[in-house]
Each structure stands twice: as C-alpha cells, then as structure tokens.
C-alpha cells in the first residue's frame, strides 16, 4: 500500500494545513463550499447524488427532489420526482436531457425544456441510470437502468421504447458509466464493459476484496477518455484500456479486449475518482481506527496521485473537514468532475465542496504567505496579463517592505528601480522612508537621473547626508549625477562650509573643483586642480580654453607634469607664447625644455652651460639628444673650464672619442682629478674592447652553426613523384614509361626541370636566378 501525507482543511476558509507553518510544498488545489441555494437545500434535506455539466449542476436529495443549480449553487429549477432518495442523475453531453432514478423504482428520462420522455415505475429500487452521451440526436435515443439487472432502452422507428437485458443474475447494479459506444457497470462481483457497436460484453474485471459489502463500499467508475476506464473499489485502483483485437485472433472472441495497464493498492477506502491530465484525483474515506490520530480520523481525503504500473506516487493529499463528517460512511461520499475545466465536487449528505486547480493568483498568494516575495514578483511579471487579484507594483512594494524589515537595504533600494518605475510620487515616498530608517545612502545610487527626475530637494537631501558622513561617497555622487539634478550653488556653499573645518581635505577640494566646473567658474576650478596637482588640470584647460588663465602658472604646470605641460603649450602656440613668457620671467629650466622640444637644441645647451653652469645637466642633455654637433659645442665651451673638462672626461668615453677632447686641452692647464679621469677612460676603453671581442665570438659561433645547419638541410634527399612538374615546360616531371632512360634536375630551392628543358649552362635555377641568385645555387641531378 502507498502511504500518503495529508493536509487538513477546516472552516471558515475551509483550509488549514497542519504542516502549514513548516511545509515548503505548495498545495495543488484550493477549496470552497458550494453555497447560496445549496445551503438552503441541505438545511432541511440531504444530498444523495449529483452530476456535473459544463453549464450547470444537477443535485438529487434524500427526499426525492432534483435541483438544477448554476455554478455558484443558485437554484434555477426544481423537480419533485419522488418522496424517497434519488439514486442517480444522468445528463447527455448537450445538457438538454436528464435521466433520473430513485429508491422507489421510478425512472424518468425527459428533456429539460419539455417533460415528454420516458416515465416508468419498477417493482424494485433502481440504483443507476445513464443516457447515451448523444441522446439529444434522434438516432441515439438510448439509455440504461440498473436495479437487479441492467436494461438497455432504445427508441425504435415507431417511436416506441424497446428493452434489452444486457446483464442479470449477479446482484444489484451499483454503478454505471456510459462513454461513446462503451457502457461500464459494476455489481457485487466486479466490473463489466459492454460494446454498443457489437452488442457484446468484452470484459469482466473482478473485485479484489470480496469481504467488503458492495452497498457500504460501492465501486467507483470513471472514464478518462473514450477507451480508458478507471476502477476504484475498496482500497484497490485499476486503470483499464480498451483495445482493438488483431483481426487474425478474433474467431469467436469480441473484436475488443481490455488490458489493465496499472493496478495498485491505497491506504484508505475509495469513494470517488476523477482524471486530471495524466494524474488521478481520488476521494478517500478514512475509516475510524483507535490507532490513528483522534482529531483527524474520519475526515475524507482528496489526493492527487500519479499512477504507476504497480504503485502510485503522491502529488498532494488534503484532509477535508466537511459538515457532519463523523456521521458519514464511505457510501455517503461521491466525487464528480467537470470535464470542461478542472473542477472537482465532493458531495456528502450535508455539504458540497468544490476543489479547483490553483491559478496564478493562488500561486502568488502562497508565495506571499511564505514570504517568497522575489518569486511572487517574478511570477506576477511573467503572468501579468492573466492575474486578476494581484498587481505587480503592489507585490513589488510588499517585497521592498519585507527587505527593509529584514535589514537588506541594498537589495530593497535596487528593487526600487524595477518596482517604482516612472511613478515619481512613489519614488519620493520611498526616499523619505529610507531617510526615516537612516538608509539614504542605500537608495542614492538607484534614484532616477534621466528624463524623469525627482524634485531637486530630494537629491540635495541625499547629498547633505553623504556630506555629513562619507566624503568619498559624496564625491562619487557629484561625479555620477548630472549637475541639473540639484541646486549647484547650495551644494557649493555646503562644501565650502565643510572645508572651513578641514581645509586640506583633497576629496572635498576635488569635488568643489568639479562643482565649480559645472557652474562654469573655471578659474576657481583651475586654482584647486593646480593646488592639488590633479591630473585633470590639462583636460580642464583644453576643454574650456583656459590658456589666458595659465600665463602665470606655467611653472606650476611644468613642475607637475613637464611632458604634458610642454605638449599642451607647443600644441597651442597660437593661444599662448610659453617660450616668451618663460624667457621674460627667467624660467631657465622651463625655457631649456621648451627649446629642446622645439628643436633648438644648440640654444638649449648654451643656456644650460652659460646660465645654469651645470656640466652634468649639459652632458645628460647631450646624451639624450645624441648629436655630434652638440658634443662638439659642449667640448668647445668646456675646453677652458677645468671643472667642465673633468666632467666630460668622466662621461664622454661611451659617446665620443676621448682623444678629441684630450688633444684640445692646453698644455699646463690644471685639471682637477685628471689622473682618475684618465684611468676611468682607459677602463671604459678596455671594457668596450672586451665587449666587442665577446660579440665577435658569438657571431662567429652563430654563423658556423647556421652554416652547418644549411649544409645538412641541403644534403637531404628530395622526393620526386608523379605529382611534381617541370617548372619550364609544366609537364609531369617523370615520364610515363619509367623503363626508358631520363634525367631530372632538382635544385636546392626544390624547383625541378627536365634536363633538356634547362639552358645549356644549367648551373642555376632559372626561376630563382631571375629574382636573385640565392637558394638555387646548388644542383641535384637524377638520372636513370
């Protein structure tokens, strides 16, 4: 047997899950009582049977009445059929004809829009009646009744009813179901199926537990489709499929047979079955047992199960608290379903409950109840066209509130973008809510800043908040937010006030410069950038054409980044004469740098020697330029200055021949550290000789290695086959008759010729020689 978990449903919402607080499994069905007229009927009477049409319901009672109800349970028609229990009601597919049988033997078949039809009183209780599904059509005026035998009624061409005994002798017929041309019925021994096409009985499915009284534990029958019958009896379920027999096997057998494709046991007693796609909805009667949990013992259960060949898998299991459930037996419950939509009716004497598949709104309800707000929001966004009770934005707002309650402020702020969208009023409300809980920083980076914007005071409030506690965050917002979002002057004043307390704060100063830039007060911004030696100073000058403002700041610019400064000044000579300004203000180093970049290196060297008198700088400058004339100028200027000569002797050896300098030194001139300088020159010279010899050895070794490699390569054999051609005549290099003598010339460049195709000398490859004598300088000759 298959043990199934259960969920308990109680009043007034009709549902309470005893695992509700901990279970993460979503219910498959939702429940509600059928009320309105049904409530009034069941106060003074009791339901005995019901059948379901897509458009209406037909309810039979213990006092012999039949009520037609709309889907909400309102009474639309009432029929006084008998004074005793209505056993079964049958409707055709059109919903225009009804068949009714009662405990006192009455059978009525009539049109709902006319009372003309079949009316008969039998001398025994009639338990079941079933109309042909197409009863409204003239050629299908057929129905069956079941008491102590199963009778088939057919209207003949004379408009009279003729009777056929389909089956008898096995006790009372307790259930009958007609689908297409197949009739299934149950008696105390088992279930039979009758084929209306051939008028033959095609199967007999025996019941498993013969100890159960058929009147107390009746058989449940349900057609899943035109050929699949589901049988439930006691605790056993069988799924039977009607199949066509192979014509070669027919002989005296019916043309159809039944195969049981699934059979399994359940834990409780079956009192109703209904298909749900490839699953089963099963109504169980839970018999009281002192070993079970007392409070939930006798509640009927509605389970969804997945049939397997020899067992089943539980999908969901719900215990239902129907009215007066403790007074009911298995035979008091019925399960009916609407084939047009997934509606399941649980009928008991004093209560009728409707089970429905949960829709997307119900799914969202459950997710919200479980505080799975993100999943609920996603489900609502995906199904926004189908949901009726929920609003995507309201779910999103609930999600944001939940995130704030749990302290996940960043996620809550991020969700605002998606949830609040273009609703500026909601945005402002949320900003104030974040302010109330001290989390303005969290929402700052997600505020609208495009075409849709909040009031400037909202942005200013957030900037002031950052300015109090987070200078870096404040600077980031100023860089990221467009200046038109807020009152720039108010923020400038606020930053200035903070700088009074911390005048050297580079973050605030940089931010103030950016604010000045936006406010087009570029001179103020330039002063701050220069003071901070900020990399953006050059971009600011270029972008806003501030060359007139930097005439007195050239030294600062060059001191900060000489290369960038000179590039900028030289690229904009028409806007500012940097060289002239430097010369006027006697900025020697800056003038030297400008002259060198302008190509006037001799003048630059002259200023270094004459005005700076820095021999090391002059030598370094000459090295950088690597110009023989500059070295000559440097030697000429230094020849009468002993300190300069010393410097040159110490550094000139690797760039200029020291003899040129030494020869020009006047006799008798006293030169500081001359001996050390000469020793250094000799040492440098020896070092150069050693380096040259080392390089020569390396070159010789490499040349020899490469020569040997080339020789080995050229000594290798060359494959000649039918795929090669003569480079002169373009014919196949090998003759068709290999037995005849022939000569092939193969050069090291891999070009091949017939010997007779080469010129008389034939020493070199024609192709390679035409380009330049090279790889074809050798020759291989193949003869045969």
Automatic annotation (TrEMBL):
GO cellular component entries: clathrin-coated vesicle; early endosome membrane; Golgi apparatus; HOPS complex; late endosome membrane; lysosomal membrane
Q: Which Pfam families match?
A: Beta-prop_Vps41 (PF23411), TPR_Vps41 (PF23556), zf-RING_Vps41 (PF23555)
Keyword check for Acyltransferase? no
Q: Which UniProt keywords apply?
A: Cytoplasmic vesicle, Endosome, Golgi apparatus, Lysosome, Metal-binding, Protein transport, Transport, Zinc, Zinc-finger
Task: Give the bilayer topology.
Answer: Peripheral membrane protein
- Where in the cell does this protein reside? Endosome membrane; Late endosome membrane; Early endosome membrane; Lysosome membrane
Supply one GO molecular-function term.
zinc ion binding
CDD domains noted in UniProt: RING-H2_Vps41 (cd16690)
The UniProt entry, under SMART domains, shows: CLH
The CHCR repeats are at 497-647
Q: Known InterPro entries for this protein?
A: Beta-prop_Vps41 (IPR057780), Clathrin_H-chain/VPS_repeat (IPR000547), TPR-like_helical_dom_sf (IPR011990), Vps41 (IPR016902), Vps41/Vps8 (IPR045111), WD40/YVTN_repeat-like_dom_sf (IPR015943), WD40_repeat_dom_sf (IPR036322), Znf_RING (IPR001841)
Is this entry keyworded Zinc-finger?
Answer: yes
Limits of the RING-type domain = 726-769
UniProt record, GO biological process: cellular response to starvation; endosomal vesicle fusion; macroautophagy; protein targeting to vacuole
> What exactly does this protein do?
Plays a role in vesicle-mediated protein trafficking to lysosomal compartments including the endocytic membrane transport pathways.
Family designation: Belongs to the VPS41 family.
What name is this protein filed under? Answer: Vacuolar protein sorting-associated protein 41 homolog
User: What is the originating organism of this protein?
Assistant: Kryptolebias marmoratus (Mangrove killifish)
């Amino acid at each position: 047997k298959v043990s199934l978990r259960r969920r308990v449903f109680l009043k007034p919402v009709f549902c309470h899950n005893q695992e509700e607080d901990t279970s993460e499994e979503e219910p498959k069905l939702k429940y509600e009582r059928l009320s309105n007229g049904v409530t009034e009927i069941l106060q003074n009477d009791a339901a005995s049977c019901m059948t379901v049409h897509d458009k209406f319901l037909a309810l039979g009672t213990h006092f012999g009445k039949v009520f037609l109800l709309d889907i909400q349970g309102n009474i639309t028609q009432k029929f006084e059929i008998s004074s005793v229990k209505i056993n079964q009601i049958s409707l055709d597919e059109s919903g225009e004809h009804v068949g009714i049988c009662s405990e006192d033997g009455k059978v009525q078949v009539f049109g709902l829009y006319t009372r003309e039809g079949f009316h008969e009183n039998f001398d025994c209780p009639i338990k079941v009646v079933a109309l042909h599904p197409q009863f409204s059509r003239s050629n299908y005026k057929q129905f069956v009744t079941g008491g102590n035998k199963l009778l088939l009624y057919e209207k003949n061409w004379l408009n009279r009813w003729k009777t056929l005994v389909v089956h008898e002798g096995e006790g009372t017929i307790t259930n009958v179901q007609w689908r297409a041309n197949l009739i299934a019925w149950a008696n105390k021994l088992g279930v039979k199926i009758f084929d209306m096409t051939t008028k033959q009985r095609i199967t007999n499915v025996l019941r498993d537990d013969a100890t159960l009284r058929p009147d107390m534990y009746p058989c449940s029958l349900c057609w899943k489709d035109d050929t699949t019958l589901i049988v439930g009896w006691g605790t056993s379920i069988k799924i039977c499929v009607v199949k066509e027999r192979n014509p070669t096997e027919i002989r005296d057998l019916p043309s159809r047979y039944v195969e049981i494709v699934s059979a399994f046991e359940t834990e409780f007693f079956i009192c109703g079955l209904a298909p749900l796609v490839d699953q089963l909805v099963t109504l169980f009667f839970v018999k009281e047992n002192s070993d079970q949990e007392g409070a939930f013992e006798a509640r009927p259960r509605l389970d969804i199960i997945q049939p397997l060949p020899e067992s089943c898998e539980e999908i969901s299991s719900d215990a239902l608290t129907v009215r007066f459930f403790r007074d009911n037996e298995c035979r008091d419950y019925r399960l009916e379903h609407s084939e047009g939509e997934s509606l399941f009716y649980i009928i008991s004497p004093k209560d009728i409950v409707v089970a429905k598949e949960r829709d997307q709104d119900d799914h969202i309800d459950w997710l919200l109840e479980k505080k799975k707000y993100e999943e609920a929001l996603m489900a609502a966004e995906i199904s926004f066209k189908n949901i009726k009770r929920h609003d995507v934005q309201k779910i999103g707002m609930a999600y944001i509130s939940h995130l704030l309650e749990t302290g996940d402020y960043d996620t809550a702020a991020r969700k605002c973008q998606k949830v609040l969208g273009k609703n500026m009023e909601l945005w402002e409300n949320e900003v104030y809510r974040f302010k109330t809980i001290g989390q303005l920083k969290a929402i700052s980076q997600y505020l609208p800043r495009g075409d849709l914007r909040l009031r400037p005071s909202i942005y200013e409030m957030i900037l002031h908040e950052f300015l109090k506690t987070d200078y870096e965050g404040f600077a980031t917002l100023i860089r990221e937010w467009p200046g038109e979002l807020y009152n720039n002057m108010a923020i400038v004043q606020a930053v200035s006030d903070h700088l009074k307390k911390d005048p050297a704060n580079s973050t605030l100063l940089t931010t103030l410069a950016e604010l000045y830039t936006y406010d087009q007060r570029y001179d103020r911004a330039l002063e701050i950038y220069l003071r901070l030696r900020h990399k953006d100073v050059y971009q600011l000058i270029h972008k806003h054409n501030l060359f007139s403002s930097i005439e007195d700041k050239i030294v600062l610019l060059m001191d900060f980044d000489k290369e960038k400064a000179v590039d900028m000044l030289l690229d904009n000579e028409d806007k500012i004469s940097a060289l002239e300004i430097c010369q006027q203000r006697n900025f020697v180093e800056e003038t030297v740098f400008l002259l060198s970049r302008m190509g006037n290196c001799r003048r630059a060297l002259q200023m270094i020697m004459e005005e700076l008198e820095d021999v090391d700088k002059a030598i370094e400058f000459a090295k950088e330029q690597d110009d023989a004339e500059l070295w000559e100028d440097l030697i000429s200027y230094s020849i009468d200055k002993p300190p300069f000569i010393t410097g040159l002797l110490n550094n000139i050896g690797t760039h200029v021949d020291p003899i040129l300098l030494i020869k020009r030194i006047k006799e008798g001139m006293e030169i500081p550290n001359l001996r050390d300088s000469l020793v250094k020159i000799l040492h440098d010279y020896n070092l150069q000789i050693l380096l040259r010899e080392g390089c020569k050895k390396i070159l010789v070794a490499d040349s020899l290695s490469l020569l040997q490699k080339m020789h080995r390569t050229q000594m290798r054999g060359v494959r000649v086959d039918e795929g090669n051609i003569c480079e002169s005549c373009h014919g196949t290099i090998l003759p068709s008759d290999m037995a005849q003598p022939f000569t092939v010339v193969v050069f090291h460049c891999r070009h091949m010729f017939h010997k007779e195709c080469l010129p008389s000398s034939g020493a070199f490859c024609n192709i390679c020689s035409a380009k330049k004598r090279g790889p074809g300088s050798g020759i291989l000759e193949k003869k045969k």
